[in-house]
Amino acid sequence: MHFALPPRKTSRPPPYLPRTSHLPGLRRTRLKLIALGGLFFLALIYLITRSGGGSSRHGLPAARVPKGNPPVVIVTVLDSTKFSGTYLQTVKQNRLQYAEKHGYQTFLAKITDYDLEGSPFSWTMVVAMRDALTKFPDCHYVWFLDASSLIMNPKLKIEEHVMPSARLEELMRKDLPVVPPDSIIKTFSHLRGQDVDLVISQDKEGLSTSSFVVRNGEWARFFLETWFGPLYRSYNFQKAEVHALEHMVQWHPTILSRMAVIDQRTINSYAKGTTAEEYKDGDLVVGFPECVTVGPQECETRSKPFAQAWKRVFESV
């Protein structure tokens, strides 16, 4: 009689087979419900944060939207080494009266207010702009106006005369050399008014920082921080912050893509200049950019007839 022999053992173990789950059906159902509930909760949080303004489209905290209180902050830097005391009082009165009429605020800084770490005092304008945004986080616009200028037309408002998208579409000069006369870098031909955050003009020398407007927002803070960066301040530009700005605009599309160059007389007329620059009755501003090179009394002398005209106009409205 032959008996079946037991199977011979082998040195090769059978392949590992993972145990199959034997969870009860009820437990699997509960786990599915918990997972679905978790997904629903996460989706709900995502939708709330997106629609409620608490986050950006990338899930990061969204930028704070300014309420427009005040609509505009006028920033002017006062330098007693360049201007007489009488003239500076005229400038202060000019800014305060105009701001009061339109519900604006003024930010009148002195060149001694900030530690510029050895940089020329002209850089104060950039720090003052940044400081104004910190002090008035709900403003819509910050308008820098140099102390060598006077506001002449109290009827014109920045948020109407310059900044509306449709108005910017009319004013901006497209495909224009950034630094005249033949810079190969030109203003964007496809730029739309709604995308503009920096409004500035040119004179015969290049970009003019005597009068320019910045729209409050994250881009404005980025722009001012970049402009005041130690690299630009340490570089020996002939005209310090002005040439630094021109360099930024020509080499950084992030800046150029948000900048509109408009006709000079819209916000920056000169008392004397070419036909395109020279002040005419009804213009918003008149400037005396070269008076500081002569002496502190010169700006007072050149501005006197305009100051008298300004006071008469303001008293009549």
Automatic annotation (TrEMBL):
Q: Which InterPro entries match?
A: Glyco_trans_34, Nucleotide-diphossugar_trans
**Similarity comment text for this entry:** Belongs to the glycosyltransferase 34 family.
Lineage of producing organism: Eukaryota, Fungi, Dikarya, Ascomycota, Pezizomycotina
Region (Disordered) spans which residues? Answer: 1-21
Q: What organism is listed for this UniProt entry?
A: Dichotomopilus funicola
Q: Source organism's superkingdom?
A: Eukaryota
- GO MF annotation: an example: alpha-1,6-mannosyltransferase activity
Entry protein name? Galactosyl transferase GMA12/MNN10 family-domain-containing protein
TM spans, by residue?
A: 31-48
